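We examine the record.

___
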Amino acid sequence: MTRRSTETGTETGTDVPTVFTTERLTARAWGPEDAATIFDIYGRWEVARWLGATPSALESLDEAEELGRRWAERGAPEATYGIWCITLTGSATPIGTVLLVPIPGAERGEVEVGWHLHPDHWGNGYATEAARAAIARGLSAGLDEVLAVVSPDNDASLAMCRRLGLHARGRSEAYYGRPLEVFSTRPHTAH
């Protein structure tokens, strides 16, 4: 069944409500029914190597189903925070993830924006477009700051932070227990 998004009036191709849209993308909650796509994205070392305190690629479809369930719980359209599936508008096929979540273990409750796309969709500006919309969503919901934390070796994500107009704050080990480059934006500096 196709659900008409109340936010945009366009077909989402899924029963899952739209969280937000951009010119080319639709964000919605992930679900366990997306397990094969989750596994296809996060089972790839070229994606997984940049994620978390101890990066590892998914090894099974069961792991992907569990992620889909956990992410679905965090991706409600009315919630400020979430880990959302992104699709090309008009398509139900996921191309990646955009997230806006409190950083685990952060002392001041810092919130981060993140993006993970299937390699087939790298280089098209989709991650920048989705991250910009997620940041705007968070700031319009009242967040006073949004961070991006990036591995110092992840040249593509470092460049993206600059394209987003994020302020470079330097390297820190305060997040995820490893050295990461920290970028930030506030409502008055958002681009």
Notes: Strands lie at 18-21, 25-29, 82-88, 94-102, 111-117, 146-150, 167-172, 180-185. The CA atoms of residues 88 and 187 lie 27 Å apart. The chain has one domain: 18-185.
